[in-house]
Structure formats: structure tokens, C-alpha cells
Give the backbone structure.
Amino acid sequence: MKKITIRDIQKLKGNDTPFATITTYDYVSARNADAVDIPLLLVGDSAAMVVYGMENTIPISMDELIFLVRAVCRGTEKALVVADMPFMSYQPSIEDAVRNAGRFVKEGGAGAVKLEGGTPYISQIRAIIDAGIPVMGHVGLLPQSYHLSSGYRIQGKTKFEAEKIYEDALAVQESGAFSVVLEGIPADLAEKITETLEIPTIGIGAGPKCDGQIQVYHDILGLYGDMVPKHTKQYGKLGIDIQNKLAEYKNEVEVRKFPSPKHFTTSKVQVVKNH
């Protein structure tokens, strides 16, 4: 069974058919995505919210993410697994960036890492690549800059912002990244960046003209409460389905309908208690 490589992802640039990618956070979600031939799985720092119940992505740690990366890698036979570098795992220094990227590969089993930001982190991207680790970039809306941006809001709506995002995307490519996520930017800006870059662009809330798309597993399956981001289409409401099935199970236990005879065995052995 062929394992997807960085070169395979790069070959998806400019195809008439865009490619789908998804976040996964555990063995089961990875197996589900791998079974339908999704080529790239991102163990995103969004796990902070959908797995650990945190308010935003900022608090999650390296150790908390490595634990999930290991599980996803165990559930993946074909897809390329990319680990998301959490807040302050690469920003302080080049040394921190290389060391923590290395942990994701050596301890977690990831095939690449992703980090947010453009021009300010070019040195980190280059150093990680020089250490033999592929890097996916991420520009536009940067969830780790939640406080600086006063929450999650569309970026690139002004000329200044649009030009900065465009330059950041170019800088990420020039630094050697194999692809770049475009998040929360106007569709026309994403299209312009996609036409300019030679590496694949992967959009989330960036319109249909990117080379690929990425969404959060829990969002598109309706697993994560009632909150549905604008960029998300829910393909099901599995959270409600799960609750209904759990309620059915609970009820059957309480009325002794479960377990039924087909779920257990009996014997004619008599236990005699000796006194």
C-alpha cells in the first residue's frame, strides 16, 4: 500500500480536481479518513478546543499534541500526517523551532509539521527544513494570534492586509515550504495567491480556487455542539446521533433489555459453597 509523500502532495498543484484534507486527532478518525483516501491528515492545534475543551488553541502543549499525533499515525496507512506546531513551540527561537519539530517526527511519527506566520518566521522554517523536516506554511487568519487579532476575523479585507498576506505566502514558498494553508481570507485574494505560487495552497474559509481544502473533522460531521463556523458545511449531525444511541443504550440497560441472551453465555455448572 503506497504511502503518500511530500512529492505526491506537491504534484497536486494546479490540478483540475482540488484535493480534500482534514484534521484528525485519534486512531479512529485517522482510520476513517485514510479509508476514503484523503491524502493529508493534519493533527491540528484545534484539538485544544474539540478534544481538550479549551477556549482557543493557545493553551495546548507539545506533549498534549504529540500524544494525539502518535494515535493518528497508528491509524494511518496511506495519508501524510502533518503535526501542527502549537503556540510558543517555535516563536521564541530557531533552536526551539527545530527541537520541537524534531519531537513531532521522532516521538510522534509525523511526516511534516505546520506552523503559522509568514515573513517573521522564515528563519525558523528554513532551519526546520535544513534539519530534514518538511514544513507546511499557514498565512491569513492565524488562530494563535487570537489576542492580537481581537478574536477570529477575516484577514486581508484592506489593501495593506491583503498585500501583507500575499508577501507572507511568497516568503513561505521561498523558504522551502512544500505547501501553505490560506485561512480566513477573501476568495479573490486566495485565488491570486494560488495562481502565483508554485506550491499547493490549501484553503479554509478562502473560497473554492485553492488547490485543496481543509476542514475540522468535528465540524463537518456535526460532533462539536451547535457551533458551525461560516466556512464549514455540516455533512451530518453525528453528535445528536451519538447522544440518541447512548440514550437508547442507557434505557435498555435500565429495563434489562440489554444484555440479551445473544450477548452472554451460560453454563450448567453449579457452584457449591463449602462452609
The chain has a mean pLDDT of 95.
